[in-house]
Amino acid sequence: MIRLASYNVLANAYVRPDFYRGCPPAAVEPTARRLALLKRIHGLQADLLCLQEAEADLFKTLDRPGRFFQKGDGKPDGCAILVDHPGPASWTEHPYQDGSGHGALLLHLPGLTVATTHLKWDPPAVRPGYGMGQVQELLSLLKGPSIVCGDFNCESSDPIMQRCFQAGLTDAFLGVAPNETFVKQGQGRRIDFVLYSYGLDVRALPMPALTPGQFLPGESEPSDHLPLVIEVQGF
Fold first, then answer.
1. Residue 139 buriedness (CB in 10 A; 0-12 / 13-18 / 19+)
2. Which residue of 10, 109, 188, 231 is surrounded by the most CB atoms within 10 Å?
3. What is the Cα–Cα distance from 155 to 161, expressed in whole angstroms?
4. pTM of the predicted protein model
5. For residue 27, how many C-alpha atoms fall within 13 Å in the half-sphere facing its CB?
6. Is 98 helix (H, G, I), strand (E, B) or coil?
7. H helical segments located in 120-224
8. What is the rounded CA–CA span in Å between residue 168 and residue 152?
9. Phi-psi category of 230—alpha, beta or left, where left has phi over 0 and alpha has psi -120 to 50?
10. Which residue has the higher pLDDT, 232 or 187?
11. Are 200 and 212 in contact (CB under 8 A)?
């Protein structure tokens, strides 16, 4: 069994006070938030840790084997996968071909591919926009049993997610309550997913419950996203 966690950790570079009004000051102060974030990540006890909005210094501080894939176009963050017990493995760093700077990072293990991504957000008026093309590129990279996780910047009813389901991927947290993974100014939405291909034995662990109107980051959650954790048996 392996435990996998997917977590948008909220890059310090994106923490602006006007975006996070209502949050406790210590929850958005960079040094205090980084310490809280390291504690939260350690508590996940993940064999495979898939991060979005990771910054290079956070990856270095975590001091675990893995790979950091920084976004292009001058963006300060990227995706990372950290592995507790590295064995035979290879990596794919795939920048999406739309010039957005976003991309996907894939870890190829014997019998399993793990991919993490942070799709570019598209305003509702221009959907499917960037996201659909990006997810099509990501799906084309999958070979064999796969887990795909990350911040998809859309909800499960969106055509982007429906395309993933049509490709044979299953939502590990389907029907798991509570199901809000992201909070902006007290409003929760589910835009983070862990998807897996047919034949994998996956169990989703419960997510923390959010109270109505709760602001993130906060005292117990150092990001505006919640981590998603699954256990995978016998791949």
1. middle
2. 10
3. 7
4. 0.96
5. 18
6. coil
7. 129-141, 159-166
8. 17
9. beta
10. 232
11. no
Half-sphere exposure of 41 (CA within 13 A, CB side): 27
The CATH superfamily assigned to 2-233 is Endonuclease/exonuclease/phosphatase (3.60.10.10)
Q: Distance between CA 30 and CA 34 in Å, rounded? A: 6
Q: Residue 124 has what pLDDT?
A: 78
pLDDT in tens, 158-204: 999 999 999 999 999 998 877 899 998 888 899 999 999 999 999 99
What's the Cα-to-Cα distance from 211 to each of 92, 148, 208, 218, 219, rounded to whole Å?
Answer: 39, 28, 10, 12, 13
Chain Cα centroid distance, residue 177: 18
- Distance, in Å, from the CA atom of 43 to the CA atom of 161, rounded to the nearest integer, reads 29
pLDDT tens digits, residue range 76-123? Answer: 999 999 998 767 889 999 999 999 999 999 999 999 999 999 999 988
Q: Which two tokens stand for residue 206?
A: 């419960």
Domain segments of the chain as ranges = 2-233
Phi-psi map region of 47: left, alpha, beta (phi>0 left; psi -120 to 50 alpha) = alpha
- For 43, 54, 117, 179, 190, the CA distances from 70, given in Å and listed in that order, are 25, 8, 11, 29, 24
Distance from the Cα of residue 174 to its chain's centroid: 16
